[in-house]
Amino acid sequence: MGGVGAPLRPAAWTLNQRRGVSSWLARWFPKTPAKSVVALKTPIRVELVAGKTYRWCVCGRSKQQPFCDGSHFFQRTGLSPLKFKAQETRVVALCTCKATQKPPYCDGTHRSERVQKAEVGSPL
């Protein structure tokens, strides 16, 4: 069959092993990302330092809003933070409702009825 010294493996074992790997990957890296959730209904003012790189939380699940703490990965959202570099040192309002059209900056969308009616922690 397999020759001298060839390991004896049933065909089903190999099939199940592959299926196990792909299902593991699918759990951690879903094909369809979760929706962002409303972290807060008001922006957070922060001082950005020129030349420093920041990771803005896209999923809304971070406990360190408005920045990413890795919650998107451990909660298997399929989302990734928005990495950006500050061009100048200044105080800005960063979005926490996650509905802005100018991420990571607040554009006032949190004032909309849709965001104000949403529960904190729920998707829009």
UniProtKB/TrEMBL annotation:
- GO molecular function (one): 2 iron, 2 sulfur cluster binding
Q: Keyword Protease: yes or no?
A: no
Q: Which controlled-vocabulary keywords does the entry list?
A: 2Fe-2S, Iron, Iron-sulfur, Metal-binding
Q: By its UniProt entry, which InterPro entries does this protein fall under?
A: CISD (IPR052950), FeS-contain_CDGSH-typ (IPR018967), MitoNEET_CISD (IPR042216)
Q: Which cofactor does it need?
A: [2Fe-2S] cluster
An annotated GO cellular component: mitochondrion
Question: Which segments constitute the Iron-binding zinc finger CDGSH type domain?
Answer: 41-75, 79-116
Protein name in UniProt: Cdgsh iron-sulfur domain-containing
Source lineage: Eukaryota, Metazoa, Chordata, Craniata, Vertebrata
